[in-house]
Design brief:
The chain is of the alpha/beta class. It folds into two domains: 33-112 and 230-272, D-Maltodextrin-Binding Protein, domain 2 (3-Layer(aba) Sandwich); 116-222, Periplasmic binding protein-like II (D-Maltodextrin-Binding Protein, domain 2, 3-Layer(aba) Sandwich), CATH 3.40.190. Helices cover 42% and strands 23% of the residues. It has helices at 2-32, 41-56, 72-79, 90-100, 140-152, 202-207, 212-215, 225-229, 244-253, 256-266, and strands at residues 34-40, 61-67, 84-89, 104-112, 116-119, 133-137, 157-158, 171-173, 179-183, 197-200, 218-219, 232-237, 271-272. The strands form three sheets. The chain has a six-stranded mixed beta sheet, sandwiched between helices. α2 links the parallel β1 (34-40) and β2.
Length: 274
Amino acid sequence: MKKILLILTVAALLLTLFAGCANNADSETNDSNTIVVGASITPHAEILAVAKEVLEEQGIELEIVEFNDYVQPNLNVESGELDANYFQHQPYLDQFNADNGTHIVSVALIHYEPFGIYAGKTKSLEDLADGATISIPNDGTNEARALMLLEAQGLIKLKDDVGFNATILDIEENPKNLIIKELEAAQLTLSLKDVDLAVINGNFAIQAGLNAKKDALAIEDEASISAKTYANVLCVKEGNEKNPAIVALAEALKSDKVVQFIEENYEGAVVPIS
């Protein structure tokens, strides 16, 4: 009788062990088919929501985490809290890696958002008074981009060859004695009423209900060097570029369904990269 009980006990333990192994295996399979991606609220998270539908057809689950800043999404990819992020362009990524010692790489170019100059207290470029205040993003690459757009409108002139390294210290000519106010990108729309004009990043403009094509006083030319340089990218930590789920996400973001969504919903404020 004791032998029978011993045999039954051992059998029960083995069944429990095998069941546990099976559950772990299922869990690992599920984890490998789930990716967590950080994104700006607009348009990135909205675009990812459409890509999520494409991925579901392939048995891949996409979890989207929204951010209001340009720092945490990169730090969380570096730490492994996120599998990927989608909110930035390559020049910003390069500068972030250099400044923070991170190892984040681009895996795909997805879309381009033209910068725009928007009216605050002054309603047109022609009405801009001497000594007027214009706010621009304060992060390096976007500051240069904003200054180049102001230069394209003849409002300032930058030193020769400064290009995407330009800062307000590189303004060589300022005929209207404009006050250039550097602000964190997320604050530009919130402070629009307090300045004459603002040069605003595409995603924050969209989040505030502004469309660069319809509402901006001037926007970047889609054929300009800025358009070619500042495409928004899907990013991962170096070494994860060939993760099958990441590859599938990149393909989903370039799918006909996502491209159609971008073109129909943003009407030129977001331009898909083919």
